[in-house]
Amino acid sequence: MNPFFFIILSGLYFLFNFTFHSLYSSLNFKLILTLKSAAQFGEKTVIKDFIELGSIL
Asked: Which pTM value belongs to this model?
């Protein structure tokens, strides 16, 4: 696994958390679940989850 992938992923999480905390609290919860998916299943699951997030937005 590429360690930079997790740096980018955590950066995206904090960006969402800081910018949209009051409006997108459910999205932040989804991102936390996505981070857990990253630790368990690897990059493919996470990329799929972010594609799903993009379709929601």
From this structure: 0.29
